[in-house]
Predict the 3D structure of the following.
Amino acid sequence: MIGRFRKKLKSAVYGMVPRSRLLQRGPTGRARVALTFDDGPNELTAGFLERLDELGVRATFFLVGNKCEAQPDLMREYTRRGHQVASHGYDHTRFTQLSWGALVDQLDKTDRVLGRQPTSRPWVRPPHGAVDARVLGQLLAYDRLIALWSYDPRDYEVHDKDEIARRCRPERVSHGEVILLHEGRQSTLDALPAIVGGLRDGGYEMVTMAEMFASP
């Protein structure tokens, strides 16, 4: 009962946000999906970037500001290799746990670390996807584009690369899907060749979120 109420409340809150400012699923007219990765950079980042290079895939990475500050050279590798980067908060604190001023501080500090973005508005993915009406209103007031996801294979709950790849099979996704994955997980890194191969066999092209949502 409580779970259903929370889902309805969350849907109602999302419903208050213009679709152009809250991105969850892309256009469905083309066989495209966006692979997105949260929580970097970390000790596996170089491996993820090398693997995606080998597979010829560009992805979207939502980065944690203080981790980027600690590893500026590694942070620059994402964009050097053609990936999209965006904010995942400064220290991965849930935005719903932050005061108005603390959230502004998180947004500003992470923007400074990431540098100029190639889109008209800075993108942000709230840590854990945690938002409420106040947070959404504040993000809109501060001219942020809120980037969520439409499909969560829950790679954080399993350690078997084959199971992660199975959860990303083409028959389990749809056109325009934004797939949530995580850096820092060896099993996800190991699953990437099978994920990409399976999606390509299913006729899907993999693009960044910016590319997907720029398409008609």
In short: The mean pLDDT is 92. Residues 113 and 181 are 23 Å apart (CA to CA). Residues 21-214 form a domain with the TIM Barrel fold (CATH 3.20.20.370). Residues 186-201 form the longest helix (16 residues).
